[in-house]
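Quick look at the format.
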Amino acid sequence: MTENEIAKLVVDAAIKVHSKLGPGLLESVYEVVLAKELERRGLIIMRQVSVPIQYEDLSFDEGFRADILVEGKVILELKSVEQLAKVHQKQLFTYLKLADKRLGLLLNFGADLMKEGIKRIANGMEEHT
């Protein structure tokens, strides 16, 4: 399954979760429910995945944790805020670079409509879906 195929399934699942639970709950609630919804769709997920820093022959574990990794390919960073900030995008891009992944989705469950709360972040791949 490609990153783009995974992303389409994730977006569909996120919209379903958002429509059932509504906006504004704690991020941890959305993480648990979204993870289960993705598993129901047959996807392999990992939650709170450690993202170490690699520099030459050194490795640093600075406590970076990606919220959800889907199929070992797509990183999901969940938020529940009124509006996404540039720092949220930088956070996800950092995870993508350090984990050597090509695609991440920033999902803001605080948005009134889920489609307004989705930001696609690419690391060396085409921006289209």
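Next, a different chain entirely:
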Amino acid sequence: MTNYKMDAIDRKIVKYLQQDAKMKIKEVANKLTMTSTPIFDRIKRLEKKGIIKGYTAIVDEKKLGYSLTAFCSITLEKHNKEFIEKFETEVKLLTEVTECYHLAGGFDYLLKLHVKDMMQYQSFLKERLATLANISRVESSFVMSELKNEKVLPYFA
């Protein structure tokens, strides 16, 4: 896979859309002192190339009752392709898990999840995560406070 070469205008478009995905094409064009048509074409090209993967609303999990954020470090028993693929397929189905990373280092996967409280986390651990095959160890860490959570890539800030 080759990297798409973005020019200064593409970078500014991405910057503006990261700051406000609901920004109208006309607003982006005005900021760049351009017309709407080339901005529309550039956005479509950035989407087609996979630079812009999608648009989403960022919600406040605490206001929705999810007061506990946890990280689970997972170590697998077996590391052959079949077991890894099975684990990855199953973990994607766990709705509490909002992020999952396959890592090199002291453990194999890092899961980030949001639950309402410790009781729901315990239920998740016992009823959902523990049912996945091939897990040898789970280590949990709990967020006490969030200091920074940026969704904008620093290159475009």
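The first strand starts at residue 68 and ends at 76.

See the schema section for token definitions.
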